[in-house]
Amino acid sequence: MNTALTGILQILSPGVLLLMLGGTVIGLVAGALPGISATMAVALLVPFTFSMPAISGLALLGAIYMSAIYGGCFSAILINTPGTPSSIGTCFDGYPMARQGRGQQAIIVATVASVLGGLFGVAALAFLAPPLANVALKFGPPEYFWVAIFGLTIIATLCSKSLIKGIMGGLLGLLISTIGIAPIGGDVRFTFHTPALQGGVELVGTLIGLFCLPEVLSMILDGSRTYETVDVKQSKGVFGTTFRQVLAQPMNLLTSSVIGTVVGIIPGAGGSIANLVAYNEAMRSSKHPEKFGTGIIDGVIATETANNATVGGGLIPLLTLGVPGTPVDAVIYAGLLIHGLRPGAELFTRFADVTYGFIFSLFIATLMMLPVGLLLGTALHKLVSKLSIRILAPSIMFLSIIGSYAIRNNIMDVWVMLICGVIGFMLKMLKVDPAPVVLGLILGPLAEAGLVQGLLMGRASGMGWRLFFTRPVSLLLLAMSVFSLVWPIISAQIRRRRAKEVGTGA
Amino acid sequence: MRLARVLVPVVILSLVALMFGQVVAAAGFPEKPITYMICFDPGGESDITARLQQKYLEDVLKTKVVITYKVGGGGAVGWSELIRSKPDGYTIAGDNLPHTILQPMQRGDAGYTTEQLKRVYCFESTPCALVVKKDSPFKTLDDFIAFAKKNPGAVTLGGSGSWTANHLGTIELEKAAGVKLTYIPFTGSGSATPALLGGHVTGLMTYTTMAAQQLDKFRILAVAAPKRSAVFPDAPTFRELGYDIVEGAYRGVSVPPNTPDNIVKILADAFEKVNKNPEFAKKMAELAFDLEFMGPAEYTKFIQTRKAYYTDLLKDMDIKQ
User: Fold this and answer.
1) Per-residue pLDDT averaged across A88-116, rounded?
2) Integer Cα distance of A276 and B85 in angstroms
3) Looking at the predicted structure, is the pLDDT value of residue B1 above 60?
4) Angle at the Cα of B57 (from B52 to B60), degrees rounded to 5?
5) Partners of residue B294 on adjacent β-strands
């Protein structure tokens, strides 16, 4: 315990705190810019940590990681573009809020939720790491297949108005995800003799195209001069009221934190899946699910709590087992190895000062996001809402092109983004939600790898496809999928019947 | 007239500069930052090595070395861009074996051919290692082979991707020992590790670097290297146990085709100097990388030998040639 305390004291030195403050700002900016993911931001800073003591370097990387995941909410709320894939669901309610002149409120909600979710995940890491780490190992290929299927069932909730359109979108996403080299077997698929397409279609470019471009186009076509459709005077004390509104949803905060932490622990998943699962759950358990997507704070609370909870969750299997929970963790892993720190039991005994110092630094970094995020968020909101559409629209276009190129330095991704923009605009006119397309794109590779690996395992064990229906965790996920699929249909029927009763009663 | 008087010398000078451009460029090479392209995700073996090399390379070359990522298609996206880049030595890319041999072989059109990558230097290798969990009933390679012989196809081996060193190592083991194994490809060496820790596969055909990260939980049955690793000297090689298997991933750097030889030499010398830096070598050894010292000619020749070997090995298999 004494060694843990030395680590904590090292974090509290002014130099390290200043470093973390810098990291928080870098992370926020990187997260807010679509095209610079949390992974990239951390990877770029890793070499700078070589010359630092291990603990300062890790504190810097941790601060960037935490705040980059949070920073994605700014562009999601202000321009309907998730800055990182962890903020996809934040667009659904955050952006309508901003257009209604409640952008500042949305940013405050996202900030408070991110901080609370982040703290929850780190607390799980600090106190429950060893028992929770074993959860990660329960997930083999068949389980990943079912996780992906469960993820796809979210479409039923998201698109309860028109399930057919939702399923069409999901299938389109799955189809797009097959472009490139097959994850298993290495076959070349749908590349049309374009070498650059061997890498498949990049998620971020697709996100920008599907979510952002249609908005920019309709801003221009609407002929509106200002960004906010209604003129709202900023009321004083908006922080206090909003803060209380967030805290008034303890169940939403708790479930979203748990979802984020657990999804973070499962290797290979991460914020991109966690935020959508949390949104789904918040909508499912809500008393007024029909209001989701119109600009209510419940949705923003769910996604932003969950994605920051994945940070602590993802570090659990990394620090205890040497298994990165999320792509960013893989980069932090490299940082650890280069500093001679090998994940595992040793990290909590011989290097307890560094490990507990690092965990403690994540607490501090999460708290730092509150003032830094509010300042930066308010400034950004002011900038976007004051600008005339004539300046705003081309600026967003410019950033979209830069962003989709920057993610992989691949000009092909810019074309993909533009094509997705056209598709997205058509989908918007047809009133088809782009979210299922993205879900299909994220979950397709996970489902495919899980299915083929599981079938190979099944063949080796002589069980064949029955392997998918005999493992306990698989069965649990299967049950969850069925429930998630059927619930929106049942609950809609119950509501309809009740409405009828009320109607006949009166 | 006056215009012509100015233009003519300018045109002539430009032509001269163009003709001697390569020579002139080489004389002062490098004069500006060098872009070092990594074709795999940050955090992987290629990235870790490049990040460690960066500082020392900058010291030797006296210029900035900028690491960029061009990820996708198991490296093919980056390599097909490299061969289309300017052949002036300012764009270099990490290249990997057997990837750059097998991708053009198996995919038909990978966007590049093995020979289009002009090899500069091969600086490291990570041999394959056959590992099981510490609590596995297989204490030795003999136990493992005996079980696999009795239960054809029942033994599952996880590894990184299809047609990779891990995959080929498994095929070579099948041939050498006369057994049938089930190889399960994962999306990277990192994601195969939890499959073994969780008991979802019997073992892994992985790299020594991955095995070194899990020494407390893994048992190494055999290493596919010519000699034992310094990090785990107790683990035998396949050759010692009677199976002639040497397989692994080799990493080096390449430049676009037609890059002048003198520039290639400057780059190769720089990478060799970095490899011979004791501080660098110590860090690499800790991470269980084996250093290699193959210059341009030797590396190219090595690739020819490997290509012939793989063509032979995969002759009977269902693979496009």
Assistant:
1) 94
2) 40
3) no
4) 145
5) B122
Q: What values do phi and psi take at B247, rounded to 5? A: -145, 150
Contacts of B258 (CB under 8 A, 6+ apart): B87, B118
Find the distance separating the first CA and the last CA of chain A, reported in whole Å: 68
Instruction: Tell me the torsion sign for CA atoms B42, B46, B50, B51.
Output: positive
CB atoms within 10 A of CB A506: 5
Distance CA A205, CA A418 (A): 8
Report the C-alpha gap between A265 and A377 in whole angstroms: 29
**If DSSP codes are grouped into helix, strand and coil, which group holds residue A24?**
helix
CB distance A344–B216 less than 8 Å?
Answer: yes
CA pair distance B194, A323, nearest whole angstrom: 6
Contact A186 B76 (CB under 8 A): no
Q: Residue B218: what pLDDT?
A: 94
Predicted confidence (pLDDT) per residue in B153-169, tens digit: 999 999 998 889 999 99
Please give the C-alpha separations between residue A280 and each of A155, A284, A290, in angstroms, as whole numbers.
Answer: 9, 6, 12
Q: Which amino acid is at B144?
A: F
Residue pair A282/A289 in contact by the 8 Å Cβ criterion: no
Report which DSSP code applies to A210: I
Cα gap B301→B278, rounded to integer Å: 28
What is the phi/psi pair of residue B67, to 5°? -90, 125
DSSP symbol at B253 = E
Phi, psi (5° rounding) for residue A445? -60, -35
Looking from the CA of A323 toward its CB, the CA atoms found within 13 Å total 31
Q: What is the DSSP letter of B231?
A: S
B56 interface with A at CB cutoff 8 Å: no
In tens, the pLDDT along B182-201 reads 999 998 777 888 999 999 99
Are the beta carbons of B42 and A323 separated by less than 8 Å?
no
For the segment A442-463, the average pLDDT, to the nearest whole number, is 92
The answer to whether A338 faces chain B, any CB pair under 8 Å, is yes
Q: Which residues, 6 or more positions from A222, have their beta carbon under 8 angstroms from its beta carbon? A: none
Cis peptide before A327 (omega within 30 of 0): no
Residues of A within 8 A of B287 (CB-CB) are 337-338
3-state secondary structure of A81: coil
* B162/A186 CB distance under 8 A: yes
Residues 7-36 of B with CB under 8 A from A: none
More confident residue, B314 or B204: B204
Q: Cα–Cα distance between A56 and B168 in angstroms, integer?
A: 42
The residue to which tokens 């994601």 are assigned:
B191
Q: What is the spatial distance between Cα A459 and Cα B182, in angstroms, rounded to a whole number?
A: 9
Residues B88, A109: Cα–Cα separation, whole Å: 52
